[in-house]
UniProtKB/TrEMBL annotation, chain A:
The active site is at residue 288. InterPro entries: Ald_DH/histidinol_DH, Ald_DH_C, Ald_DH_CS_CYS, Ald_DH_CS_GLU, Ald_DH_N, Aldehyde_DH_dom. Coiled coil: none annotated. One of its GO terms (molecular function) is aldehyde dehydrogenase (NAD+) activity. Pathway: Alcohol metabolism; ethanol degradation; acetate from ethanol: step 2/2. GO terms for biological process: acetate biosynthetic process. This is Aldehyde dehydrogenase 5, mitochondrial. PROSITE patterns: ALDEHYDE_DEHYDR_CYS (PS00070), ALDEHYDE_DEHYDR_GLU (PS00687). Minor mitochondrial aldehyde dehydrogenase isoform. Plays a role in regulation or biosynthesis of electron transport chain components. Involved in the biosynthesis of acetate during anaerobic growth on glucose. Keywords: NAD, Oxidoreductase. GO terms for cellular component: mitochondrion. Residues 50-511 form the Aldehyde dehydrogenase domain.
UniProtKB/TrEMBL annotation, chain B:
GO terms for molecular function: aldehyde dehydrogenase (NAD+) activity. Gene3D superfamilies: Aldehyde Dehydrogenase, Chain A, domain 1, Aldehyde Dehydrogenase, Chain A, domain 2. The keyword Nucleotide-binding does not apply. Belongs to the aldehyde dehydrogenase family. InterPro entries: Ald_DH/histidinol_DH (IPR016161), Ald_DH_C (IPR016163), Ald_DH_CS_GLU (IPR029510), Ald_DH_N (IPR016162), Aldehyde_DH_dom (IPR015590). GO terms for biological process: carboxylic acid biosynthetic process; polyamine catabolic process. Residues 33-496 form the Aldehyde dehydrogenase domain. Keywords: NAD, Oxidoreductase. It holds the Pfam family Aldedh. The active site is at residue 267. This is Aldehyde dehydrogenase.
Length: 516, 505
């Protein structure tokens, strides 16, 4: 098949919407490549039940490592979103979900974390099959999911307001109250992890949720919905609507009864959602968007460790990471040494079948993503960058791309400026601290940055000067439930994880009582 | 000096049979005391000995403290907050699983009614351990902006080994209030139970092991206050001492702690007032007042032992309070009757003390409206340490029963005319643990609440604690606050770091 450059201005649907006249069963038995058998729910999850979409529409779910169909799932449209919002509204307004002792919500979240752990093998395997990521990485994801839900469980009854001392004439205090129904739209790169980052703080603080999964990866959240019900969450508190951004996502962003929308995905879509939120009911928004994060290696770094971290920074999760270290800057005096070691290690990255436990890099998540990355590789070549290694697809079945390094780039090249979202990185020399800080900050994004050096003072100084929401020193992609994550500039609005996540899902009410 | 078996096979009045550990729990094992000293524990509902357990001497305390210190240095300080939290939550789940067992042991050892009291305590134990489990990964310091040349931040670090001494009125609850925040914050502990009620804590040690706590993190010893308690409060390797008990002993501990400048928190006595204004919801005031003095046989540090009633409703309140005792506060044995609300006092010593106060009250001219005697009319109850719920009225501020903590089911009723008089009477005490007031006028309620000298004020309820709200007293009622986030700060110390980023001299 002749591969041509794809113009990135048009969006090309990569998933076939299969309008079947035969009713899709609400549960489909699936045998995973590692032999695990399980029942995959296919319906929309509303009011603690799996239901077909009202219009009966379904869509195909593809395994990116084989390009074969896994199953279909039901596709929500605007009418289904309305039903989900009604369910969530009822749960928020007419039950004691938001007003009961918050420790009860905490207990339900603990139950859910336990169940996620109990079902970790199935969940990791579903994630691997649906997303294409290596199973060993998927297992790590599921571990983080359980840990994060647990952390939020502990927050539930610790969301304090203030007693504000203004003198003896008044009794003044503030409360942090939930927002109501929250719309949540998650991406396909870390399906279950992103699900947990959204639902855990929202539910801990007493909100109810309508969550849209990504169209390429709807499966794990649907399976997890069984666990949500088993954990004891009341009906309507968490609803999952599988579907497409243009229909379901748009419906959520502009829904008059949704009080807040949280989105993780591309900056371009983030902008659309922000507009829709503003034009509808001024719903609150938090956005976690794209990045082009610099990963900086100083001459006094431990070179072996630094190379490991730059590998991790770009090839982890096949480069489909919003905070991927996709621009590498190496100090002049060690550039050649680092580049050589980096090339060797990049070529040693095991790419292949996600279910092979030796595999580190799996498949890109969809045809659309594969095409986009390959087109950027072409652009890079056309712009005159040098391919040090990689630069092409692997095989012709499964969306696999060779770990790729571009060198001899100029800062104004598109491959240096634009987010590629794949295992493709640029590497550049720099002279000194001041120069690299300028280079690092020369971006509309500001999600993360990495610094590798043995001089901690320099690391701290540079960290403070880099315009990014997370700065990693001598590590990369190193997350913790209690450490906030989010972007400067066009990388987003708001922070997830940490105590800060609670701010996304609460609003302050001040009460001032005159007593004298 | 006696040799005890590792476990006693006990069968409780409700048929529950179990193995009661007897040893000191150190490094995840039960060990005999070095000198083989023991203490007997008595069933206060009939005066009979339940069994003996090993009692710690100064040498045993030293062993326990060294185990705790070692565990802190080698394992616990490297255990992440998330992992500490998980262990606490796991322990809470095991306590929930074993609710009936723990409640039964608590009931026989302390005299608490099994159904109406002890079971509720296990609920509190569960809540408090889980709550602090949720804090463990959230103990954060601050970064403080100064200028470009300095990175300044604080770490809220644990003390290391914390000594904890708990009373007999709520053995397992008090244990949870102590170990929850201490462990969440990253400390290791040596906890001494009360000599009257050592059994439930020892049984809980089985669950500590089952939950997976590393050896030496939790150490629990039975023993006498003047021996083991004293050794803990003077031990040089103990960095912090926490005590709940009488004010007199609290003062001894505070002095002892000065030996190596241990941090001290004390939760001591109270003579808490409950103020009832004439516009109160009288029925509710009566019910809460009764709860506040007769529940747990009045053995509660925050009990509303002085009730101040505005004159127009004075006698009406007292009459209704007696009616409430008769209908709602059945006295009886801890096991067998699920409706029993008032059990025996915990020991003969306590019973004698309360009876002595009752005699003093009568002698000093206070009037008795009901009660005022040891229960002897019932043959069965006569064997135990029961005191009849007692209402004194027309009590005045010079009387001993107005001033001193009785710690039994004995309430003093005092009339007042004006708001100012109520406040003055309420504050006329060396103590300041809690206070309560009843009024439908919210403005007045908040104004009066501000004037009351107490660590806690209840408006339109009494003794209505919640594990998330700080608990503790002002004046002679103590130092520091337990429960809530505040409880956590008792167990951390702040270390400030200054990193010079570029200021060369």
């Amino acid at each position: 098949m002749l591969r041509t450059s794809i113009c990135l201005k048009k969006s090309i649907p990569s998933l076939v919407r299969f309008y079947s006249t035969n009713k899709l069963p609400l549960s489909v038995p699936i045998t995973l490549p590692n032999g695990i058998k399980y029942d995959q729910p296919t319906g929309l999850f509303i009011n603690n039940e799996f239901v077909p979409s009202r219009q009966g529409k379904t869509f195909e779910v593809i395994s990116p490592s084989t390009e074969e169909e896994i199953t279909h799932v039901y596709e929500a449209r605007e009418d289904d979103v309305n039903i989900a919002v009604e369910a969530a509204t009822h749960a928020f307004e007419n039950t004691d979900w938001a007003t009961q002792d918050p420790a009860i919500r905490g207990k339900l979240l603990y139950n859910l974390a336990e169940l996620v752990e109990e079902h970790q093998d199935v969940l990791a395997s579903i994630e691997s099959l649906d997303n294409g990521k290596a199973l060993q990485l998927a297992k790590g994801d599921v571990g983080l999911v359980a840990a994060y839900i647990r952390s939020c469980a502990g927050w539930a009854d610790k969301v304090y307001g203030k007693l504000i001392e203004t003198g003896s004439t008044h009794f003044s205090y503030s409360r942090r109250e939930p927002l109501g129904v929250c719309g949540q739209i998650i991406p396909w790169n870390f399906p279950l992890l992103m699900w947990s980052w959204k639902i855990a703080p929202a539910l801990a603080t007493g909100n109810t949720c309508v969550l849209k999964t990504a169209e390429s990866t709807p499966l794990s959240a649907l399976y997890a919905s069984k666990l949500v019900k088993e954990a004891g969450f009341p009906r309507g508190v968490l609803n999952i609507v599988s579907g497409f951004g243009g229909t379901v996502g748009a419906a959520i962003a502009s829904h008059p009864k949704i009080k807040k929308v949280a989105f993780t995905g591309s900056t371009r879509t983030g902008r659309t959602i922000m507009k829709a939120a503003a034009e509808s009911n001024l719903k609150k928004i938090t956005l976690e968007l794209g990045g082009k994060s610099p990963n900086i290696v100083f001459a006094d770094a431990d070179i072996n460790k630094a190379v490991q971290n730059i590998i991790l920074g770009i090839y982890y999760n096949s480069g489909e990471v919003c905070c991927a270290g996709s621009r590498i800057y190496v100090q002049e005096s060690i550039y050649d040494k680092v580049l050589e070691a980096f090339k060797t290690q990049a070529e040693a990255v095991k790419v292949g079948d996600p279910f092979d436990l030796e595999t580190f890099q799996g498949a890109q998540t969809s045809q659309q993503q594969l095409d986009k990355i390959l087109s950027y590789i072409d652009i890079g070549k056309e712009e005159g960058a040098k391919v040090v290694t990689g630069g092409s697809r692997i095989g012709d079945k499964g969306y696999f791309i060779k770990p790729t390094i571009f060198a001899d780039v100029k800062e104004d090249m598109r491959i240096v400026k634009e987010e590629i979202f794949g295992p493709v990185v640029t590497i550049t020399k720099f002279k000194d601290v001041d120069e690299v800080i300028k280079l690092a900050n020369d971006s509309e994004y500001g999600l993360a940055a990495g610094i590798h050096t043995s001089d901690i003072n320099k690391a701290i100084d540079v960290s403070h000067k880099i315009k990014a929401g997370t700065v990693w020193v001598n590590t990369y992609n190193d997350f913790h439930s209690q450490v906030p994550f989010g972007g400067f500039g066009q990388s987003g609005i708001g922070r997830e994880m940490g105590a800060e996540a609670l701010d996304n899902y609460t609003q302050i009410k001040a009460v001032r009582i005159k007593i004298y | 000096m006696t040799e005890l078996p590792e476990f006693h096979e006990l069968t409780l009045p409700n048929g529950f049979s179990y193995k009661q550990p007897t040893g000191l729990f150190i490094n995840n094992k039960f060990v005999p005391s070095i000198k083989k000293e023991t203490i007997d524990t008595i069933d206060p509902s009939n005066g009979e000995k339940i069994c003996s357990v090993y009692a710690a001497s100064e040498e045993d305390v030293d062993v326990a403290v060294k185990a705790a210190k070692d565990a802190f240095k080698t394992t616990w300080r490297h255990t992440s907050g998330s992992d500490r939290g998980r262990l606490l939550v796991k322990l809470s789940e095991l306590c929930e699983r074993d609710t009936d067992k723990l409640a039964a042991i608590e009931a026989i050892d302390s005299g608490k009614p099994f159904e109406q009291n002890a079971k509720g305590d296990i609920g509190e134990l569960y809540n408090v351990l889980r709550y602090y489990g949720g804090w463990a990964d959230k103990v954060h310091g601050q970064t403080i902006p100064v200028d470009d040349n300095k990175l300044a931040y604080t770490v809220h670090e644990p003390y290391g080994v914390c000594g904890q001494i708990i009373p007999w009125n709520y053995p397992l609850c008090m244990l949870s209030w102590k170990i929850g925040p201490a462990l969440a914050a990253g400390n290791t502990i040596v906890l001494k139970s009360a000599e009257q009620t050592p059994l439930s804590a020892l049984y809980l040690c089985n669950l500590v092991v089952e939950a997976g706590f590393p050896a030496g993190v939790v150490n629990i010893i039975s023993g006498l206050g003047p021996v083991a308690g004293s050794a803990l409060s003077t031990h040089p390797l103990v960095s912090k001492i926490a005590f709940t008990g009488s004010t007199a002993v609290g003062q001894i501990i505070q002095k002892a702690a000065s030996s190596n400048m241990k941090a001290v928190t004390l939760e001591t006595g109270g003579k808490s007032p409950l103020v009832i204004f004439e516009d109160a919801n009288l029925e509710q005031a009566v019910k809460w007042a009764a709860f506040g003095i007769f529940f747990n046989s009045g053995q509660v540090c925050t009990s509303n032992s002085r009730v101040l009633i505005q004159e127009p409703i004075y006698m009406k309140f007292i009459e209704k309070l007696k009616e409430c005792i008769d209908s709602d506060y059945k006295q009886g044995l801890p096991f067998g009757d699920d409706t029993v609300m008032v059990g025996p006092q915990v020991s003969k010593q306590q019973q004698d003390r309360i009876l002595k106060y009752i005699e003093i009250g009568k002698k000093e001219g206070a009037k008795v409206f009901t009660g005022g005697y040891k229960v002897t009319d019932d043959e069965v109850l006569a064997k135990g340490y029961f005191v009849k719920p007692t209402i004194f009225y027309d009590v005045t501020p010079e009387m001993t029963i107005f001033k001193e903590e009785i710690f039994g089911p004995v309430v003093s009723c005092i009339p007042f005319k004006t708001e100012e008089e109520a406040i003055e009477l309420a504050n006329d005490t060396l103590y300041g643990l809690a206070a309560a007031l009843f009024s439908k006028d919210i403005t007045r309620a908040h104004k009066v609440a501000r004037e009351l000298e107490a660590g806690m004020v209840w408006i339109n309820s009494s003794n209505d604690s919640d594990f998330r709200v700080p608990f503790g007293g002002v004046k002679m009622s103590g130092i520091g606050r337990e429960l809530g986030e505040y409880g956590l700060t008792n167990y951390t110390q702040t270390k400030a770091y200054h990193v010079n980023l570029g200021w060369d001299l």
